[in-house]
Amino acid sequence: MAAKILIVDDEVRHGEVLEAALAERGFEAASTNTVARALAYCASQPVDLVLSDLRMPGRSGSDLLKALKQERPDLPVIIMTAYASVRGAVDLVKDGAFDYVAKPLDLDDVVATMARALRLKAVESENARLRSELEGRYRFDNLVGDSPAFRDVLRQVTEVAPSRASVLLLGESGTGKELVARAIHYNSPRRDLPFVAVNCAAIPETLIESELFGHVKGAFTGATGAREGRFAAADRGTLFLDEIADMPLPVQAKVLRALQEQSFEPVGSSKSVSVDVRIIAATHKDLQKEIAAGTFRMDLYYRLAVFPIPLPPLRERSDDIVLLADHFLAAAARDMGKRIKGLTPDAQALLTRCRWPGNVRELQNCMERAAIVARGDLVGPSDLLLFEATGEADAQPHTLNGDLDGELTRIEREFVLKALKDSGGVQARAAEKLGITERSLWHRIKKLAIKIDKVAGAGDG
Q: For residue 261, what pLDDT is reported?
């Protein structure tokens, strides 16, 4: 879409000529000859950039700039001026104009200046959109759940977010520790500053010190230049140290000193670098056992655990399973452009019977897969891939055998058979139980070679 340019010039003929020239260059241009009309136009029409003369009878380009900075601070303004008033134009740039162009105008210079202004506007708009999206994603009301266990977590997160206290998140893999860490950061006074995440378990032991603290040129073989570490990158913001229990003991000592003194030395350097970093750490391990085993420093534990928050596994949040499933399913359907209303009652019941060893992450993956395979506007049991038997106290995960298609076929056959048996072989009722159409069920019966006359009895043939 062509950028919309408003030209403001008291010399009507000059404005019309410039309007036509810009139209030939691919812009959508309009012109007016007073500040009042320009402000009215900007209030009623979409405008991407204003190109205004500086000196005009009555209200000047300076007056227009001041008014637009109040009403449309995101709208770039370029001032046109004669050589004699260039100094005044420079002062206007200090007051917020994007730039100025000198009269008589060089059209190439005008277009190049406009292009720079429009590129900057696009970048700033995209940054604002991403920032808004990011902050919205990690708002507290996007932490989904209503169970007592989850409400307790939310209460603690609300209490600690405004402070600068170190936080230790404890919980099984997949319980949402990074999501909670980001929610704390984006609801803290540091929200506009960096959030830097480090997975300590994913970095080789020989590289983690350099990764965290950076290094100087020549610090070790291959260090061909200086490199900033994650502590420096997170200055004035938040550093999230995930899987902190997997950090080697020598590096733990250096992290402890950095927390105590708010300074560190990059690898190979004797000069201290001062930082202001809030630490949020997380682990799925029992740190008390790690301390007893000598693999984690007790003094670092106490420095990190100023405000510990245990995150409950999903099996202890049974009231939240359907809420979370609906949330993930809606997000996945939206991303895929599919119209999915939700889960059938049988699908909901199946989800709540599962113990979810992979916790919230496993449920999210399950819903994304269901959104892909669902054919109707409701997700039924046959659309769910669960790597765990359900309904039994001693349920154990299925052993993966490298045959995903075979596993999917086996699970689909089990669901279809159960629905048919529960419906006495009546396909219309079975299709309703599965949340699919009768025609879809017929195709599945044919594909799976199920013999309907035997379903209501003991076997399926």
A: 93
